[in-house]
Amino acid sequence: MAVDLTPSPDVAELARRTAEFVREVVIPVEEANDGVARSEEIRAALQSGAKDAGVFAPHVGTEYGGHGLDMRGRAAVFEEAGYSLLGPLALNIAAPDEGNMHMLEAIATGEQKERYLRPLATGDIRSCFAMTEPAPGAGSDPGALTTRATRVPGGWRIDGRKWFITGADGAGFAICMARTSGEPGETGGATMFLVDADNPGMTSVRHIDTLDESLYGGHIELVFDNCVVPDEAVLGEVDEGFRYAQVRLGPARMTHCMRWLGIARRAQDIAVARAAERELFGSRLGELGMVQQLIADSEIDIAACRGLILQACWELDQGRSASQSTSIAKTFCAEAIWRVVDRAVQICGSLGISGDLLLGRFLREVRPFRIYDGPSETHRWAIARRVLRRHDAKAAR
Amino acid sequence: MAVDLTPSPDVAELARRTAEFVREVVIPVEEANDGVARSEEIRAALQSGAKDAGVFAPHVGTEYGGHGLDMRGRAAVFEEAGYSLLGPLALNIAAPDEGNMHMLEAIATGEQKERYLRPLATGDIRSCFAMTEPAPGAGSDPGALTTRATRVPGGWRIDGRKWFITGADGAGFAICMARTSGEPGETGGATMFLVDADNPGMTSVRHIDTLDESLYGGHIELVFDNCVVPDEAVLGEVDEGFRYAQVRLGPARMTHCMRWLGIARRAQDIAVARAAERELFGSRLGELGMVQQLIADSEIDIAACRGLILQACWELDQGRSASQSTSIAKTFCAEAIWRVVDRAVQICGSLGISGDLLLGRFLREVRPFRIYDGPSETHRWAIARRVLRRHDAKAAR
Amino acid sequence: MAVDLTPSPDVAELARRTAEFVREVVIPVEEANDGVARSEEIRAALQSGAKDAGVFAPHVGTEYGGHGLDMRGRAAVFEEAGYSLLGPLALNIAAPDEGNMHMLEAIATGEQKERYLRPLATGDIRSCFAMTEPAPGAGSDPGALTTRATRVPGGWRIDGRKWFITGADGAGFAICMARTSGEPGETGGATMFLVDADNPGMTSVRHIDTLDESLYGGHIELVFDNCVVPDEAVLGEVDEGFRYAQVRLGPARMTHCMRWLGIARRAQDIAVARAAERELFGSRLGELGMVQQLIADSEIDIAACRGLILQACWELDQGRSASQSTSIAKTFCAEAIWRVVDRAVQICGSLGISGDLLLGRFLREVRPFRIYDGPSETHRWAIARRVLRRHDAKAAR
Amino acid sequence: MAVDLTPSPDVAELARRTAEFVREVVIPVEEANDGVARSEEIRAALQSGAKDAGVFAPHVGTEYGGHGLDMRGRAAVFEEAGYSLLGPLALNIAAPDEGNMHMLEAIATGEQKERYLRPLATGDIRSCFAMTEPAPGAGSDPGALTTRATRVPGGWRIDGRKWFITGADGAGFAICMARTSGEPGETGGATMFLVDADNPGMTSVRHIDTLDESLYGGHIELVFDNCVVPDEAVLGEVDEGFRYAQVRLGPARMTHCMRWLGIARRAQDIAVARAAERELFGSRLGELGMVQQLIADSEIDIAACRGLILQACWELDQGRSASQSTSIAKTFCAEAIWRVVDRAVQICGSLGISGDLLLGRFLREVRPFRIYDGPSETHRWAIARRVLRRHDAKAAR
């Protein structure tokens, strides 16, 4: 038994079919809509197409209609889905639904699964994950959490403000992180709550206008004001919210990387096509050394992303926390994917910044990934601290 | 007599007043409009404000109501104007009008100056510069020019297609570059023509949707089809168009750098303010080493841009072609300004990619500068070739 | 069956023992000798130690006293050996012997194996690979080969000049690449010859003084002048030398990466130890954000190297040419390893450039790796060309 | 009066003669000695040559036999001297003598000037500046100074340890920084002392082996043990040592930049010559795009260095502290010069890392400049802090 990088035949086949579906069904819709699905009709049509193609919900257990892929399997399939901005929506593996399903499957009670996971898995409803708060609340530092949940008879009352809550517009429910004990700045004491969209205590205050626009359901500012939920709304155990967030976080980081790696590959393919076809100064663009350097650097970046994602996914599949390897992969991928798209824009020149190609759109969509799911700086800090602790532990022996 | 970096008192005072005008008058308008002037009313109001503040048209000769600044003077004043996306429009020094005025002042006949330069200098009309063509025409390689002007009795007939013609929507006239002799691929044989907007042979085909949106009058695709102009429409001498383009190009490159350097400084100021005020992990954001590195690197980039711009401007003011120093400055500035804005986004985190700040807008606006006025790759190629020729000349001695 | 990154227990155990041997036996010798083995005594002592520790010659088949590791197994073990500059010499896996053994095992006749491979595998003799020539001969472009072998009765006569022939001083034999047909600039027509050290036609002209010094046996300039060898000296088939060079090249590139990755890890460990222990401005060096960034970036680089090496090794073990993945891995690793060592120097400050640590030595040793085994630029050119060919093939369908 | 970049005719002429002297006299000596002057004979011959050429001691006042150049003048001349590793030694403007002369001229008493400055200015003696201490003493943080000077009748007794004291071997005297009040960690309380080489209380403990080797007189570890000096040994005022260090520091940083910029230009010229002459894949190396990119990037770096040096020098000549602009210039130059030399190595390939060219030597010599005179990280920290203080001051208004 040695290291083996051959994907299982099932995964390979599902990835192949996903690639085909994206190419034939999704990309035409994407190109016709500037990369943004702006209506429920588009979402429904894409998801219906994915079901027909047998590629829908690859990550969810078969009992919920999915393919039950582990993280390594997702790495192969999500990258293919991510080849179009609308691929993940079509397969029902877009953020934040995908991460929420992952967490619900791991933590929710049977009843919660029936009520929330099942319709989510089929695409009948969508969801959001309400964690981030405006400064000085929970942002790069989750421990700064200020939203409070206080005990009321038969349940809890949630009060606080959340923002950049992706997908909240139109979501059937929110998973809200609130402090049930301790004070902002302390690392424990958070609890996750399932809040139905029709709860009068949860209000969408505004769409936050952002550089990126393709994540379905927008980035929303939510206010929880006297938002009362029953005991059954607690997801997992009280005061264990930060631990569950970690359960969600590592895999969610990786699936972001997988999807955006798909866009990086797409950008590279667009640029390579341009380099192959455009003539300049008497030769093909792709025969000019500086263009070759851009192409090669992107090829290297893409390969390195894939290696780092695989390493982290394999650790996650072993049941390890993989906090170091997911931090490493997330930091590198977010920056490498950005570089790849930026190089593609440069290769395509004025066309690259025009709407005639989708590269400008891609550039806008991938930039925030260097910030969400932990800014690169926060991850670097965490990576270095783990290295130093490893050293200290060794030195203490 | 030694090297002296003290700006003249007049220039220093004009720069100071420009900075004040931008801060007090322009930025409020910019922030209320997401950085984009979308109506003639806004343009008129801004330009009227600049006239009241005595900062209008600093680059044009006093006989046309301007301040007659040389390139070094422009470096100081344009940077201050560029501190807001709308500052250059307000001062009437936005591209492409500013470069067109520069060229008309240098080349046009007295009559042409009265008819085109005077109303342009006052802001009564706008203009565009129709050079770039879709592949395989004039782009990174101007010599590939395919638009033709053929002799007709009493004038010329122009036929061809141009795109990415900035400011063409609403412009009073276009300066159109067309081939009057030779074949595409040859470096001579171009002529510049002044074409009035109401010439039925010149048609705007479409607005090209681009990543950037703040340059007034859009990026337009123009078709010249049986576009007849009289002999008086020739700007300068027949067949000398490429030489004049060089007259325009060097200075126009530099004024782009100056204006965008203003935006870089603005982005840095926004980020520094955020770093000074935001608390994270128990300290000011600006006390964290990685944030300090971002701030310092941007400070270095800004200082280096200024030094390179100054060098090139000084050469231009000596009447030198300054082709090497403007290539160097353009390449470095376009990339450095981009880095500065990108770092500012990163420092501000999720706020940085939201519409609550203008940084995402700045990022979109400065990206194309690495492509227009010569892509970085083309400039690097030209820089290296000049270095090699310099070596060959030395070696031959 | 899915992707599996668990190393086999045998490999894991050999890697563990190698690490222990390097730490306990090799590093003391390395530190006492400034990283350079300057005598046969040192080499003999180290190799004898490796034999005692049961870690000698891990790459060679068991019939020659080795462990028969495939490329994936080498990746794990060579990295541990490379943790010291003298580890590879100790294990008998240093360049160029290691690559020569690999090739002899694959190509040589039984008789040649007994005569050359067996004593090489035991460390009784050393060898060199005489391919590179001074300009305008075979360098970045192997096809420029000018050394000639001409038919003489019963054998061949070799004439030409080679340089940068690593390990030639004291080698028992050379594998010399010479042109048996065709002209310089043509890609075929090369043959490999086994030339004994005592052949009077092969002379060492000089030691080339280089930035790096740790590769045993130096970088030598060799002259072949009327060097007559018998027919049995031909390695493999006549005129097939370039094809065999490819057999050697891919794996040799990867084993270079593995060994130097070990040094990168070592440099990182030295820097982390320093960052953990040194106090500055009232805190541990490792608590300063910019130092954390350096540490994290190196951690990321090391992880990415490992992923890329593994991918290429797996392909090689499948019997694939792996030319793209070895080019990608080589280019990235050579540059990343350099960055890691450079960052370690920076973290350690003045100590980092002093002989009190070995980091300055490491910096000198790894720099040439961005040049030998194909300069980064040549690999990028090859990578981009393969991408473009892939596109062309697809587009032609 | 406007910004003017024309050097004064005197400076231009001295720079021209310096360039000529370096080319004709210094470089042959440098190339014959691997860039390192290893004997007093070499030093004497070079300095005698510089006197004959009328280019000796350009920075010292005419009353001491120099040319009395201000900082802007030095920028032009020192860069030419720095074009060879031995140029600064020849002109008597090498570190640390040059900085010491600068400080003595500014601070010393008339008597001290006669005794120390005059023979230093003529090259009859050399000197060193004993400030840096092993951890946890004065290094990146000068305030950590631990060497003590205590009052004794008629003078002071100095005790402490210094290291990396450049030029100490053979120096006629040392300027030693010692704490006369306060505790390590406090920013005041240091005094500078002139200590004669024959003082029995000052002992050279060892030559520190370093990556760089060309600075004459080595990097020495010095022990001050019961080192008694008279009151006249105090340079300037007691307890004002840190302030004087600043007087020395800003200009010394800049002269380092100037000299090393000369080496960067030299490296670029060597690489360009190679690129112009070497044929590869059927064209000149310099016609390959990736090589052109390396050349262009170095050209840009060199130009940017020059602009930043000039800005800082101009500020210094105005009598300003220029702490921000010298930090900016030092940080950028140290890194840019390193990049330029590294690119030159890469362009020259295997020749670049061989002793046949001096590029490997240059690489070794310039690496430490990113560490001494303040590591890049310390400067970045200082730069950012000044920016934040500027913001705070504005915000407080």
Produce the secondary structure layout:
The structure is a homotetramer of 397-residue chains.
Chain A: H1 9-32, H2 40-52, H3 71-81, H4 87-91, H5 97-107, H6 110-122, E1 127-130, E2 148-152, E3 155-166, E4 173-179, E5 190-196, E6 202-207, E7 219-230, E8 234-235, H7 241-277, E9 279-280, E10 283-284, H8 289-317, H9 323-352, H10 359-366, H11 376-396
Parallel strand pairs in A: 1-4
Antiparallel strand pairs in A: 2-3, 3-7, 4-5, 5-8, 6-7, 9-10
Helix pairs in contact in A: 1-2, 1-3, 3-7, 5-6, 5-7, 7-8, 7-9, 8-9, 9-10, 9-11
What does this structure look like?
The structure is a homotetramer of 397-residue chains. Chain A is an alpha+beta fold. Chain A folds into three domains: 9-122, Butyryl-Coa Dehydrogenase, subunit A, domain 1 (Orthogonal Bundle); 127-235, Butyryl-CoA Dehydrogenase, subunit A, domain 2, CATH 2.40.110.10; 242-396, Butyryl-CoA Dehydrogenase, subunit A, domain 3 (Up-down Bundle), CATH 1.20.140.10. Chain A is built from eleven helices and ten strands. In chain A, the strands form three sheets. The first copy, chain A, has a four-stranded mixed beta sheet, covered by helices on one side. In chain A, strands 2-3-7-6 form a four-stranded antiparallel beta sheet, with no helix packed on it. In chain A, β2 and β3 (155-166) form a beta hairpin. The model of chain A has no long low-confidence stretch (mean pLDDT 95). Chains in contact: A-B, A-C, A-D, B-C, B-D, C-D. Chains A and C meet through α7, α8, α9 and α11 of A and α7, α8, α9 and α11 of C.
